[in-house]
Design a protein that fits this description.
- The chain is α/β, with parallel strands linked by helices.
- It has a domain of about 140 residues: Rossmann fold (3-Layer(aba) Sandwich).
- About 45% of the residues lie in helices and about 20% in strands.
- Strand 1, helix 1 and strand 2 form a beta-alpha-beta unit.
- The longest helix is centred in the first third of the chain and has 14 residues.
- The chain is globular and about 55 Å long.
- The protein binds NADP nicotinamide-adenine-dinucleotide phosphate.
- NADP nicotinamide-adenine-dinucleotide phosphate binds next to helix 1.
Length: about 290
């Protein structure tokens, strides 16, 4: 039995589907009725294979019922919630569960310092010292499907407004990864001893310039749109003022600063150990556009 924490997330839902398609027995954590409802259609289809267990990562004890009897786990909650990681490891220890796959992110590799990176590394360190047989996967930005908060929002914006704003020259490299490729990676590493106690970068097939990505989007969307480029310095200044006026903005100047950083990675190790073979951005974005009917 595989215990899944974060099975109701954007990535988690694809991972759960993949495991069920592979005929695995799973037990999925949910913390609310709303979260449980997200799993109901799958529950109808896979009655025996999909089990549900209530619990909340705020409390290690609440996870014990679900973790008991599981032989491995997949943890897909943002690692920056370090207390949650501590609670999960604590509960796993109490249940004698040894094997777990954890989803981190390439934010942990950014060349500049920031709070999220620091917390993710702290959590990764806890995992490595937990005594568990871990595998840590660090995906880049994930896209695909309608609940993708990254590209789906962007595609919709372009379709509606006919323009898109970017910060900086657009010469920075990005390497987004298609959601099903991440789900396949999770499923492939779970029982693979070559991946035990290792950390892998999980990214798209090629790194591309942000400008190139926009060209691909234009071709695949079959929609011409204007690109407005704002200098990084001016944009940071404007966002700081905006944040002072609109206090609840979830956009900040750090995010703008990070846009000029190249985010290109190698998946050689993943290819070697579990034949990770991601699709190129052209293919992934075409799938996303057609699946979402854009
Ligand atoms: N999205 C990306 O582009 C991206 C990129 C790289 C790495 N990742 C990593 O991939 C993983 C999944 O990310 P995502 O963006 O798909 O997820 P997400 O939308 O952030 O979903 C968060 C998940 O955590 C659960 N959760 C939050 N607090 C909880 C609590 N107290 N107890 C139990 N469950 C709780 C949520 O359950 P509810 O359904 O109840 O809210 C949901 O299943 C994360 O580790 C993230 O860091 C994501």
């Amino acid at each position: 039995m595989i215990y899944v924490a974060g099975g109701t997330s954007f990535l988690g839902k694809r991972v759960v589907e993949k495991l069920l398609e592979d005929e695995k027995d799973i037990k999925c954590l949910f913390r609310s009725e709303a979260a449980k409802n997200k799993l109901l259609s799958l529950k109808e289809k896979y009655r025996e294979k999909l089990n549900l267990a209530s619990g909340n990562l705020y409390s290690a004890d609440s996870l014990i019922y679900g973790l008991k009897g599981s032989d491995s786990a997949i943890y897909m909650i943002r690692l920056e919630y370090v207390e949650f990681v501590k609670n999960f490891i604590d509960a796993a220890r109490k249940c004698g569960l040894k094997r777990a796959v954890f989803i981190s992110s390439t934010t942990a590799l950014l060349p500049t310092e920031n709070k999220i990176k620091k917390l993710k590394l702290e959590a990764e360190d806890l995992i490595k010292r937990s005594g568990m047989v871990y595998t840590i996967l660090r995906p880049t930005m994930i896209y695909g499907g309608e609940d993708d908060n990254n590209f789906y929002k962007m595609l919709n914006f372009i379709k509606k407004r006919g323009f898109f704003v970017i910060f900086g020259s657009g010469k920075n490299l990005i390497q987004p990864v298609y959601v099903d490729d991440v789900a396949s990676a999770v499923s492939s590493v779970l029982g693979n001893p070559l991946t035990f106690k290792k950390t892998y970068e999980i990214c798209g097939k090629n790194a591309i310039e942000y400008n190139e990505m926009l060209k691909i989007v234009r071709n695949k969307l079959k929609r011409n749109f204007r690109i407005i480029k704002l200098p990084i310095g001016t944009s940071k200044f404007a966002v700081n003022i905006y944040k002072k006026i609109v206090k609840k903005s979830d956009f900040n100047s750090d995010q703008i600063e990070r846009m000029k950083i190249d985010k290109a990675y190698s998946y050689n190790e993943a290819q070697k150990d579990f034949r990770f073979s991601p699709i190129p951005f052209e293919e992934g974005i075409e799938k996303e556009i057609s699946e979402a009917g854009l």
